[in-house]
Amino acid sequence: MIRHISVTALATCPISIAMAYAQSFLRLAEAGGAEAIVVAGPLRRRVGVTFGSSTDTAEPGRSRDELRIRWSARSAWLPDFTGTLHFRIDSVETTMLRLDGSYSPPGGAAGRLFDELLGRRISDATAGDFVRRIARDLERREAEWQRRVDPAAIGANR
After folding, report:
1. CB 87 within 8 Å of CB 54
2. Domain-by-domain residue ranges, the chain?
3. With contact defined as beta carbons under 8 Å apart, do 114 and 106 qualify?
4. Which of 6, 9, 15 is nearest to 89 (CA)?
5. Buried b (16+ CB within 10 A) or exposed e, 41-56
């Protein structure tokens, strides 16, 4: 049985740079950094993360980049996850991130029953936490860049 997840997070970060910032976050996760830790209910687990970019063609006549993400829990108790991170303009300064993905509950019939009773909510919360952490990282990176840019100096060079 395959379960589908869709979660969103809003980031105060222009869409023009959001994907590059997200790729930086995911590179750190791929290298096994703290970004690779997922919170699944009471469990915190470092997962094996891989990712790659592709083209989102969901809207006719308009293509956008997206990131394909996969993590391996490397555990009999937690599922592996495969998903796509989409980027959409919310405003000039904000980007909506949407993570759509799927997993198969581990543990056979007992795992499917657990997933029905509680696991699905844990999986939604885990994916939600992951996409919110990406959004917060985008905001942090954008704020750092903004601090480095001195608007007075830019105006003086004109």
Report:
1. no
2. 3-149
3. no
4. 15
5. eeeebbbebebeeeeb
Closest listed residue to residue 79, CA positions, set 97, 101, 100, 98: 101
pTM over 0.85: yes
Most distant CA pair in the chain, distance: 68
For 91-141, write each residue's pLDDT tens digit: 999 999 999 999 999 889 998 999 999 889 999 999 999 999 999 999 999
The CATH number of the domain covering residues in 3-149 = 3.30.530
Which residue has tokens 């990176």?
Answer: 141
Q: What is the mean pLDDT of the chain?
A: 89
Give the closest residue to 129 by CA, choosing from 13, 26, 9: 9
Q: Looking up tokens 């919170």, which residue turns up?
A: 39
Partnered with residue 39 across adjacent β-strands are 44
HSE value, Cβ hemisphere, 13 Å, CA-based, for 6: 2
